[in-house]
Amino acid sequence: MSYFRTTIDRMQGYVPGEQPLPGSNVIKLNTNENPYPPSPAAVEVLRRFDPELLRRYPDPYSRRVVEAVHRTFDVPKDWIMVGNGSDELLSIIIRSCCGESRCVVYPMPTYVLYRTLAEMQDTPCREIPFDDAYTIPVTDLVAARGAVTLIASPNSPSGSVGSASVLAQLAGQLEGLLVVDEAYVDFAEESALGLLAQYPNLVILRTLSKGYSLAGLRLGFAMAHPDLLNGFFKVKDSYNVNAASCLAGAAAIEDQSYKTINAHKIVATRMRLSEALTIMGFRVWPSQANFILVRPPQGNAEELYLALKERGILVRYFNQPKLDDKLRISIGTDEQTDCLIRTLAELIK
Ligand code: PMP
């Protein structure tokens, strides 16, 4: 007899991108972190953090973060819920709404964790294939009748976005919840935030891991109608966000200009890298995120991934249908990007 539920025994489990130990000498372009440091205002909060705050449990509602989100994005406070990264919020939503006869729907390929979270919950997944241009398959998504439909916009690994009008159409037609995962929105031209007030079934997720350079802090937030958040609060751990993350995260959210300057730099580097690789014969999908999806001229993605790794450059290779001839490359600093371009040029010669 196994100690585990059959579901857990059978599932593979999410495999995160490699995280080399701090101090390792690698150019890390595999998990879409921001190459620039976090806001000096957030760093200062951590430096001055009062250890006395560690003696007590943290605020179960992360009200400092709620306040910062409210002021920054003009969303009412009771429409905001804070999580230990957006991964935790995704888990809360799926645990709240899905089960054996309440399926999860999403276009494929997308963030692999969606499937993992559904599997843990014994929830069937309906995976609707994207076309080659990564257009959101609205009709098929609606027909799949999910309790929860997940759209990452920008999507990973494609970098493609769903326009606000397409997402509005989806929210209007779906019977269940529409979760728009905006982890990469800080590098994009469009957001679904303007739709929030009109659609009681819409949840928008944001994270501080990408645009704000705070992946190590573990902070994300959901914006949705209070009726939805009240349900999610029943499922959330009471003290899900630690005291230091709450204070530093609030400071980072309030420092929008710093985030925007870094996002502009990353978008400029993304354009430069896309052009350089296109000239070298790669197919480069248009991206609105801080990474690009590329197909090497010979389609030998795994070989290139391994050769880059040997030379100290980590990129992401997905050994799965439709992606095994492609690489996803996070946008680094200009120096890192120059090194990547030089190395790839040598390798494909
Ligand atoms: N959504 C998407 C689409 C992602 O790629 C990621 C990063 N792996 C996340 C959510 C998770 O972000 P967080 O660090 O906030 O848990």
Put the structure in a nutshell.
With 349 residues, this protein is α/β, with parallel strands linked by helices. It is 39% helix and 14% strand.
Order of strands side by side in the largest beta sheet?
Answer: 2-8-7-6-5-3-4
The rounded distance between the terminal residues' Cα atoms is 55 Å
Bound molecules: 4'-deoxy-4'-aminopyridoxal-5'-phosphate
Question: Total number of β-strand segments?
Answer: 12
Q: Which consecutive residue ranges, at least 5 long each, have pLDDT under 50?
A: none
Helix content: 25-40%
Tell me, what's the shape? globular
Helix-strand sequence? HEHHHEHEHEHEHEEEHHHEEHEEH
SS-based structural class? alpha/beta
Main β sheet profile: 7 strands, mixed
- Mind telling me the C-alpha Rg? 20 Å
* Percent of sequence in beta strands: 5-15%
The number of helices is: 13
Q: Overview of this structure, please?
A:
It is built from 13 helices and twelve strands. The protein has helices at 6-10, 40-47, 52-55, 63-73, 85-97, 113-120, 138-143, 164-173, 226-235, 243-254, 256-279, 301-310, 334-348, and strands spanning 27-28, 80-83, 104-108, 125-129, 148-152, 177-181, 202-207, 220-224, 283-284, 291-295, 313-314, 327-330. It is globular and about 55 Å long. Bound molecules: 4'-deoxy-4'-aminopyridoxal-5'-phosphate.
